[in-house]
C-alpha cells in the first residue's frame, strides 16, 4: 500500500494539499457517493466562493444550492450550510477536534467526523468507506462472501500505523480505487455495502430537476409538475412536497422558489 501510494498516489488532489479542517469537511461532504474527478472542479469553485465557514454561513441558501447543482443529493449542501453556522457561532469558526463533537454538526455522521479527524488533525481513528473496505476484504478475507464492518474495523485496528493517520487513509483509498479499476469489486458481497440506485427515473433525478428549474425564477406547482414530462407528474409533485418539507424549497404565494 505504501509502495503504491508513493508511486501512484493522488497527491495532487486539492484537499490532499491542505490540513484546514473546514476544507477537509467540504471535500468529504462532496465526495459522498460522488466520483473524485467530478468533485475536483466543484471543490475548487466552492473554495473560491466560500473559503471559510463564516463566508458560507452568511450566504443565501439559494446561492449555495445553485453552486451545488450537478453534484446531486442537495441536502448535503444544506447540511454543510447549516454546519457552517454552528461552526461560526458555537465554535468561533474553528472545527472541533473531537470526532464526537464533530458528529454533532448538521450533516456530519461517524464516517465524516473521523475522516476530518484523520485528514485535518492526524488523529489515530478507525473508519471505513468503500475503497478501504475493498482493500481489507481483498487482502484479509479472500473468498469470504460476507465480511462485517466490525471484522474490517478489527483488521484496520491491527494494522494501523500510529501517528500516520492522514497518510495511511489517503494511501488506502488510492489503493482501493486502483483495485476497483483492476476489476476487483468486492463491496457488493460485503455486509454494510449499499449499492447506489440508478439515476435515470429516480427520485434523485426528479429533485435535481426541480431545483435546477428554480435557479433563475420562481415557478408554479403546475409548471414544476412538468419538469420531467407529463408521465412523471405524480413523482415530481411528491418530490416537490418533500423538498418543501426539508426547506430546500419555499412557497411564496402560489409560486415555489429556492430559499434565501
Descriptive account of the structure:
The protein is mainly alpha-helical. Helix content is 55%, strand content 3%. The protein has a 3-stranded antiparallel beta sheet. It is globular and about 60 Å long.
Oligomer: single chain
Structural class assignment: mainly alpha
Residue-averaged pLDDT: 91
Q: Spatial order of the strands in the main sheet? A: 1-3-2
Pattern of helices and strands: HHHHHHHHHHHHEHHEE
First-last Cα distance: 47 Å
Shape: globular
Count of strand segments: 3
Helical percentage: 55-70%
Ranges where pLDDT stays below 50 over 5 or more residues in a row are none
Main sheet, how many strands, which sense, barrel?
A: 3 strands, antiparallel
What percent strand?
Answer: under 5%
Give the C-alpha Rg.
20 Å
Number of helices: 14
Quick rundown:
With 260 residues, the chain is mainly alpha-helical.
SSE blueprint:
Layout: H1 2-8, H2 21-31, H3 36-49, H4 53-57, H5 61-68, H6 75-90, H7 99-102, H8 110-119, H9 130-140, H10 149-159, H11 165-181, H12 203-213, E1 219-220, H13 221-225, H14 233-245, E2 250-252, E3 255-257
Antiparallel strand pairs: 1-3, 2-3
Amino acid at each position: 500500500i505504501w509502495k503504491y501510494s508513493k508511486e501512484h498516489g493522488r497527491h495532487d488532489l486539492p484537499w490532499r494539499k491542505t490540513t484546514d479542517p473546514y476544507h477537509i469537511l467540504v471535500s468529504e461532504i462532496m465526495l459522498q457517493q460522488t466520483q473524485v474527478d467530478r468533485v475536483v472542479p466543484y471543490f475548487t469553485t466552492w473554495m473560491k466562493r466560500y473559503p471559510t465557514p463564516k463566508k458560507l454561513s452568511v450566504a443565501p441558501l439559494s446561492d449555495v444550492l445553485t453552486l451545488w447543482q450537478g453534484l446531486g443529493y442537495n441536502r448535503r449542501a444544506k447540511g454543510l450550510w447549516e454546519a457552517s453556522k454552528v461552526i461560526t457561532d458555537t465554535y468561533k469558526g474553528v472545527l472541533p477536534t473531537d470526532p464526537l463533537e464533530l458528529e454533532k454538526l448538521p450533516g456530519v455522521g461517524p464516517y465524516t467526523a473521523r475522516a476530518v479527524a484523520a485528514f485535518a488533525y492526524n488523529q489515530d481513528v478507525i473508519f471505513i468507506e468503500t475503497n478501504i473496505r475493498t482493500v481489507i476484504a481483498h487482502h484479509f478475507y479472500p473468498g469470504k462472501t460476507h465480511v462485517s464492518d466490525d471484522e474490517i474495523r478489527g483488521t484496520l485496528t491491527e494494522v494501523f500505523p500510529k501517528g500516520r493517520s492522514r497518510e495511511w487513509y489517503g494511501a488506502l483509498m488510492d489503493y482501493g480505487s486502483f483495485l476497483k479499476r483492476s476489476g476487483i469489486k468486492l463491496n457488493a458481497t460485503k455486509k454494510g455495502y449499499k449499492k447506489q440506485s440508478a439515476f435515470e427515473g429516480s427520485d434523485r433525478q426528479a429533485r435535481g430537476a426541480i431545483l435546477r428549474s428554480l435557479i433563475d425564477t420562481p415557478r408554479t406547482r403546475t409548471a414544476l409538475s412538468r419538469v420531467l414530462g407529463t408521465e412523471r407528474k405524480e413523482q415530481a409533485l411528491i418530490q416537490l412536497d418533500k423538498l418543501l418539507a426539508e426547506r430546500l424549497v419555499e412557497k411564496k404565494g402560489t409560486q415555489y422558489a429556492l430559499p434565501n
